[in-house]
Write a structure and sequence with these properties.
With 340 residues, the protein is mainly alpha-helical. It contains 13 helices and four strands. The protein is globular, with a radius of gyration of 21 Å.
């Protein structure tokens, strides 16, 4: 029977490897931020590349990785404290279950080779499941107008699934997490008590904002949230907010409510629907800014989150050290034996 020290060492190696894979998902999500994006739900989901390369993990570890991926994507997008995080979490876990089930259902035992279905098919199935879950959950907050996007979303998931499978087939993830240099280990500076207290306060503030229905108070909260984001050291990008506003307002006016303010042919923009859309957009902008404040926190210690952030910094530094396209940069980062 393994000794306590051996079991502890084994668990630490597993935790470090899960954190490393989570950092890779964070890295892909970060890279995706630089790609053009017109609607909140139309994401390529490049973090799924990591999921497609991690089928050898035990099922609990694989699901944990999908949760970390959702957390990482929301952290990068600034939606961690918004209802969109629940969408991201739901689609990530459901997609992971579909892909993991298909892989182990159609793979030869102990060989890792897939029969009857390719990695492309598994990726497309996961992306399609993600699209359906996202729209179903989004309709609970934004209304039934979001179902109008289901068809385009499924078509987009076909392209996204093909792209992520292509990248997965041309990349290789090490079987063990690389070493972390002393510099990489110093990234986490905030004490655990400070991180927990700050995160709780910000979360309470976000819940308070989501419960508001007064435009004036919401306006004050939105300004305060943006100021807090700037003070925390996070950049303020207007384009994501503008895109979100347009989408949320449009999704709401598809379901008429109240007095008609303006009509085009048989379609009318109603006062109630427009007001609800503006209220929801203001709430989401405010809590998105607060989410950016959470993203600035750097917990100390050897928690899963702390290790993930350390590996992410090391991978990011490795990518910046090489020239070429994004695939070449990622390959170089993956081949690094020690991350700084």
């Amino acid at each position: 029977m393994p000794s306590l020290n051996e079991r502890t060492s084994t668990w630490m190696r597993k935790k470090e490897y899960i954190a490393y894979l989570g950092a890779l998902a964070l890295l892909f999500s970060y890279a995706e931020m630089f790609l053009p994006r017109t609607l909140p739900f139309f994401r390529l989901g490049l973090g799924n590349v990591v999921m497609l390369l991690s089928f050898t993990l035990p099922f609990p570890s694989y699901i944990l990785l999908s949760v970390i991926k959702a957390f990482a994507a929301s952290l990068m997008a600034g939606t961690l404290l918004t209802p969109f995080f629940l969408l991201s979490l739901g689609q990530s876990v459901s997609s992971a279950i579909v892909m993991y089930t298909l892989y182990h259902l159609f793979s030869w035992k102990n060989s890792g080779k897939i029969r009857f279905i390719s990695l492309y098919g598994i990726s497309i199935a996961g992306a399609s499941a993600s699209s359906v879950v996202q729209i179903a959950l989004a309709s609970l907050y934004l209304g039934e107008g979001t179902y109008a996007l289901l068809g385009p979303m499924v078509l987009f998931s076909l392209f996204a699934g093909i792209l992520t499978a292509f990248m997965a087939l041309h990349l290789h993830i090490p079987q063990d997490a690389p070493a972390l240099s002393e510099n990489a280990s110093k990234i986490c500076l905030h004490k655990k008590s400070f991180v927990v207290t700050t995160a709780v306060v910000i979360t309470i503030a976000a819940v308070f904002i989501l419960m508001l229905d007064d435009l004036k108070i919401l306006g004050v909260c939105l300004v305060a949230s943006v100021i807090a984001q700037r003070v925390s050291g996070r950049k303020i990008l207007l384009t994501p907010h503008l895109v979100m506003w347009l989408f949320v307002v449009f999704a709401n006016i598809l379901v008429p409510s109240g007095k008609v303010l303006y009509s085009v042919f048989s379609f009318g923009i109603t006062e109630g629907a427009l007001l609800v859309g503006i209220l929801q957009a203001m709430k989401l902008s405010a809590v998105s800014a607060l989410s950016q404040c959470v993203a600035s926190l750097r917990p100390e210690g050897d928690s899963l989150v702390a290790f993930t952030l350390k590996y992410f910094r090391g991978l990011s530094n490795a990518m910046r050290k090489t020239n070429g396209n994004i695939i070449k940069k990622i390959k170089f980062a993956l081949s690094s034996k020690c991350l700084e």
